[in-house]
Amino acid sequence: MTEHPNPTTEVVPSRMRRALDSDLFYAFKRSPVAIVSAVVAAVLILSAVFAPLIAPTNPFDPASLNLMNGFTAPMAPNAFTGDTFLLGTDDQGRDVFSTILYGMRISLFVGIAAVLFAVVLGIFLGLVAGYFGGWADSLIMRAADVQLTFPSILVAMLIFGIAKGITPIENHDQMAIWVLILAIGLSDWVQFARVVRGATLVEKGKDYVSAARLIGRRPYAIMLRHILPNILSPVLVIATISLALAIIAEATLSFLGVGAPATQPSLGTLIRVGQGFLFSGEWWILFFPACTLLALALSVNMLGDWLRDALNPRLK
Amino acid sequence: MLPFILKRIFQSLLVLIITGAIAFSMFTFVGDPVDNMLGQERTMQDVERLRAQLGLDKPIPVQYVKFLGEAVQGNFGVSYRQGREVSEIIMERAPATLELAALSALFAIVGGIALGVFTAIRRDGFVANLIMSASLIGVSLPTFLIGILLIYLFSVELGWLPSFGRGEVVQVGWWSTGFLTESGLRALILPSITLGLYQMTLIMRLVRSEMLEVLRQDYIRFARARGLSDRVINFRHALKNTMVPVITVIGLQLGAIIAFAIITETVFQWPGLGLLFINAIQFVDIPVMAAYLMMISVMFVVINLLVDILYAFIDPRLRVAAK
Description:
Oligomer: heterodimer
Strand order of the largest sheet of chain B: 1-2
Largest sheet of chain A: none
Number of strands of chain B: 2
Shape of chain B: globular
Helix content of chain A: 55-70%
Order of helices and strands of chain B: HHHHHHHEEHHHHHH
Strand content of chain B: under 5%
Radius of gyration of chain B: 24 Å
Order of helices and strands of chain A: HHHHHHHHHHHHHH
Mean pLDDT of chain B: 80
Number of strands of chain A: 0
Distance between the termini of chain A: 33 Å
Largest sheet of chain B: 2 strands, antiparallel
Distance between the termini of chain B: 9 Å
Structural class of chain B: mainly alpha
Low-confidence stretches of chain A: none
C-alpha cells in the first residue's frame, strides 16, 4: 500500500491493516515508554498464561518437591542434592521461579476478573443512571457517594470479611479467590459508573439517539447498541489503570492475610511468606516475587497512562 | 450558608445510618459466633448458655434496636475472640494508632510542603527533577513493599531501628505513649515514614503544581518589580496562596492515613487498631469488625463534612450551587 492511496481504487483494508494505520498505533510507535511497558506487560502476561509449559516444576504437585532442596540460593547448587534453581527455592524446596509464574496467574486472574466485574457493573449502573435519570439516578449515585467516602481497599477488606463469615469454614480456601474478585470488583465500580453516567448524559441528547428512539428501539437496545460503543474509550482507559490498581489491591489483601490462601498463592501471598525469611538471610524468597509484582503493576499502569494521553490529547 | 450545611449534615447522617445497618446485618447474618467461640467439644447447654449471654436468642428487630442504642454509647459488646469488651480493647489499642498517624501526618505535611516548594522554585534543577522522578516511583510502590524495603535496609542490613512493635511504652492515665522513651521513639520512625510516604508525595506534587501556577501570576511579577527578596516572594506571597487546596487535601488525607494504617501496622506488627481489624477479619470477630467500621465511618464522615463546610466558606460559588 502506498502512502497516499487513491480512495476510488482502494480495496477495503483488512482489520489488521486498519489497526496498523490507526492514529493510536502511530502514537504507540512514537512512544518508547509505551513500547517498553507493552513488551514487559506482554512478556509477563504470556509467561503467566503459559506457566505450565515454562515452569521447570509444578509447585503444587507434592511429588515434584524435595524438602532437601529447601532454601537453595539462586543459581547455586544445593548442598545436599546438587540441584540448581534459577531463582532459588523456598522453605519447602519449591522452585521460586515456578511459584512466581503460577502466582502471577492468580494475581492476573483476580485482577482481570475483578476489573471486568467492576466494568460490567459500572457500565450497567452508569447507563441506567444516565439514561433514565430520576430516582434510579439518585439511588445509584447516592450509593456511589457513600462508597466513595471510604478508601476502596477498606471496602474490599470489609466485603472479604463478610463473605468469609458467610461461607462455611471448610470452603474458605476454594472460595477465597472468588471472594477476592467480588471484593475488589465491588470496591471499584463507582468510577466506571460515574464516567459512563456523565458520557451517557451527553450522548443522550444527540440526534442518533433520538433517531433510534423514533424507529422504536427499546431503551436497553439504545443503551447497549447505540450509546455504549460511543463511550467506550474513557472506560478502556480507566479499566487499564484500574487493572494495575486491582493487581496491587489483590497483592495488598493477600499480603495482609485476607486474600489468596497459601494453597493458591498469588504474588502477594508469596511476599507475605517471603517476609518471614528476610531476617534469616533468604532474601530471594521475597525479592523476586516483589520485583515481579512491581514490574507487572508498573508496566500496566504506564500503558494506562499512555493510553489516556493518546486517546485524549486535550488532557496532556 | 445554613441550608448548605444542614443538607450536608443530613447526608452525613444518612451515610452513618447506612453503615450502621451494614454493621448490624454483619452481626445478624454473618456466621455463627457461637460456632467460632466454642471448640469442637461442646454441649448443647454450652451453646444455649453462650447464645443467651451474647443476646443472640432475641428476635432480630429487638437485637437491632438494642444494637443502635448500644452503638451510640460506643458499646459494641464482647469480642468473640478475646472475650473482652470491644470498647475496652479499642481504648487500649487506639493510642498506638493515633500516635503513629499523628507522626505520619506531621511527616507528610512538613516533608510534602518543603519538598513541594523546593521542586517548584528549582523547577529545572537536577535535584528537583530527581525528587520528582523518585516521587513517581514512590506513588506506584505498594505501601507494604515500602515497609518491607525500609525494614530490610534499616533493620536487617544496618541494624539501626527496630522492625516490629512499639518498643517501651509509658502509661499516662489510660493512654499508653511511645513518645517518652527512646526505644518507643525509635520504633515509631520506620512505621511513620512508611505510612506517611504516599501522602507526602501527594502533598508535594500538589504544592508544586499550585506553586508553579501561582508563581506565574501578575502579583508575583509585581512583587519582584518592587524588589522584594526571593524568600519573601516565595514564602510570604506565593506559598500562602497555595495553601487553600493543600489544606483541604490534607484534611481528606488524615482519614486515609488512619485507614491505611492497617497495612503499615501489619508490616510492623504495630499493636494498633489496624492490626486489630485485620485479625478480626481473619477470625471473623464480628463485634470488633463492626466497631471498627462504625468508628472509621464516623471519622470519615466528620472529616468530609468539615472539609466541605470549609470549602463553602472559602469558595462562595459552592454556596450558591447548593441552594
